[in-house]
Amino acid sequence: GAVVSQHPSRVICKSGTSVKIECRSLDFQATTMFWYRQFPKKSLMLMATSNEGSKATYEQGVEKDKFLINHASLTLSTLTVTSAHPEDSSFYICSASGGAKETQYFGPGTRLLVL
Amino acid sequence: GESVGLHLPTLSVQEGDNSIINCAYSNSASDYFIWYKQESGKGPQFIIDIRSNMDKRQGQRVTVLLNKTVKHLSLQIAATQPGDSAVYFCAENEEAAGNKLTFGGGTRVLVKP
After folding, report:
1. Which residues pair with B3 in a beta bridge?
2. What is d(CA B75, CA A98) in angstroms, rounded to the nearest whole number?
């Protein structure tokens, strides 16, 4: 149980284009989903928290207009990196939680490379 | 601000030996802690968790110890296997901050055959 998937697993795009990453909870309802970013050999940094049906809460320093998050259902959240630039290249990981005091289960991550 | 950190960035262990990974946290209000394992190119995998009303919890080959007095968390892996080679992160759950996780810097465990 508690499986979270991400799609795509890897994406290469040109600078200035937008990329959408999907995060799905496959066998449970995720009232809360989290998006993280991880640079090589570094820890995970929380970007934003999204609750189903409401606007995402972004961490300090994360541009909400650049990283658009939608959590339209209890099993799907999307992260769109708009007008991507090479410095946006990173490993993006989502996690899903069934609610407060519930464990976060992580997706396999999406490696983004912006050329 | 509050933070979660690790003492050892890399741990080399002989196959079959026990591994101990340490983590220090500074937020005395934290009441939920989790250990994750991350293999290269993959997302973190839940290993074990512990709440602040406990000081020890055991799983399959793993044990988490929590010492609230000194704000210290450890993960013990018994009979370490090659498949245990990965980066291990401790994470702190801030329920008052919306169930967010704050991750430590990570410890790489290398299992030598």
Report:
1. none
2. 25
- pLDDT 10s digits, A28-70: 899 899 999 998 888 999 999 998 888 899 999 999 999 999 9
Whether A32 and A97 have beta carbons less than 8 Å apart is answered as yes
Cβ contact A44–B49 (<8 Å): no
Give how far the C-alpha of residue A52 lies from the chain's centroid of Cα atoms, to the nearest Å.
14
Inter-chain Cβ pairs, chain A and chain B, closer than 8 A: 56
Contact between A101 and B95 using a beta-carbon 8 Å cutoff? yes
Residue A56 contacts residue A76 (beta carbons within 8 Å)? no
d(CA A18, CA A79): 10
Name residue B94's amino acid: E
- Comparing alpha-carbon positions, the chain B residue that sits nearest to A31 is B99
Residue A107 contacts B where some CB pair is shorter than 8 Å: yes
User: A95: exposed, middle or buried (C-beta count within 10 Å: 0-12, 13-18, 19+)?
Assistant: buried
